[in-house]
Amino acid sequence: MSVRTLIRHLHFMWAAFILRVQAILDAAVKTAGPLYILLALSLLSCIIYLYYTTVLPAVHDLHSVEGLAHLFLSAWLIYNVFFNYFWCIQTDPGSPPMTVDVGDDLSKFETASGIPQIRWCKRCRRSKPPMTHHCHICKRCILKMDHHCPWMHNCIGYNNYRYFLVFLLYLWAGCIYTVCMASIPLFGTSAHFLFPQEPTQANGVLFTFVLSLALFGSLSCLLGWHIYLVLTAQTTIDFYSNRQRRRDARRSGQVWVNEFDMGKIQNLRNVFETNSSGIWWLRILLPFRASPKGDGVRFPSRYGSSDAAFDANHLHHHDLPSSSLANGSAPDSRDAITLERVLADSEDNWRSDNMV
Ligand SMILES: [Zn+2]
Ligand SMILES: [Zn+2]
Question: What does the entry list under GO cellular component (predicted)?
């Protein structure tokens, strides 16, 4: 056996081992999904309980106008958090249609290498519209997939991304609100606060403050990240491939342009507009159940409508041909297990494994 063959053999074994480990981890994440939800609900319930039993009574008399105003405001935040959390879990993120007519003339999709760049999922055996990716935990292709979220026990994709984003927004607002409210008795100087006459309540306020502050810190990073993605018309998964394309283009003296980036305001509208009539920004402020505008297969593009079956990012003259076997290869035989296929599987898994 030559050294080259030995290296290939070891490479194959390593890739197979990684896939096996990842399959076990995927199964564990899927199985533990309800526990994640239970943990999230317990954490939220704990903060809410402590807020109403320790923080709010320490700041305002609940029968005063101020106390009632804070009761109403906190109830509004809580309702929005749970409304969007529930529908993010319940809403199917969406999968591409079983059959997509790819047409006869593939020459117009050829790249410099002469190979048509059809995005194709070898597991689902169907073409992948732009921004669609295969989730190896849900074991299916997800429209405009952002990531698989264990806290939702669901993929975050085309149909439920709006719920996910508004959930983050209201949870973030609720945390900063709780932190501010808990700061008043902790750091304020007014004599009417109940400290230190009731040390149990003081401990409750301090615990709520620390818990909310920690959650606020984490959520600020996560929310900031998703606001950036929304304003630049990217998903978490596509961000990494787009970054690579941008670097490749820069190295070859070209400029890569994200064709789905229609400008910040329009990008924001594209996320919050729904198939029903109404003012799009009210979808952020008010709990509202509706499917997003469009079909998740075609997206508005700065160069015209995107094609249903092909990743136009691969085709535009600003772009470089994709080097990803997982995304660029034509359908292969399901039974033919080769080193290339194992490596392609591994690459695809890594690409869609950006869990938040
Ligand atoms: Zn798939
Ligand atoms: Zn998933």
Answer: membrane
Query: In the chain, which residues have pLDDT < 70?
Result: 1, 99-118, 189-198, 304-356
**Residue 147 belongs to what domain range?**
3-351
Could you tell me the distance, in angstroms and rounded to a whole number, from the CA of residue 149 to the centre of ligand 2? 7
Closest ligand to C-alpha of residue 150 is 2
Distance 154 CA to ligand 2 centre (A): 6
| pTM score over 0.85 | no
Q: Which ligand is nearest to the CA of 138?
A: 2
Is the residue at 176 inside a domain? yes
Any idea which residues carry the catalytic annotation?
149
Ligand 2 centroid to residue 130 C-alpha, Å: 17
Burial tier of 134 (Cβ tally within 10 Å: 0-12, 13-18, 19+) = buried
The pLDDT of residue 342 is 37
Ligand nearest to the CA of 356: 2
Spacing, Cα 95 to ligand 1 middle (Å): 9
Centre of ligand 2 to C-alpha 148, Å, is 4
Residue 356 lies in a domain: no
The C-alpha angle with vertex 80 and arms to 77 and 83, in degrees rounded to 5, equals 150
- Rounded distance between C-alpha atoms, residue 119 and residue 116, angstroms: 9
Closest ligand by atom to 354 CA: 2
Structure confidence at residue 59 (pLDDT): 86
Is 116:103 a contact under the CB 8 Å cutoff? no
Answer whether residue 115 is part of any domain.
yes
When divided into structural domains, the chain yields a total of 1
Q: Is it true that the peptide bond before 196 is cis, omega within 30 degrees of 0?
A: yes
Q: What is the pLDDT of residues 267-301, one digit of tens each?
A: 998 888 887 777 777 777 778 888 888 888 888 88
In a domain, residue 260? The reply is yes
Ligand 2 center to 317 CA (angstroms): 32
pLDDT digits (tens, 9 = 90+) for 63-120: 889 999 999 999 999 999 999 999 999 999 999 887 655 554 544 444 555 555 567 8
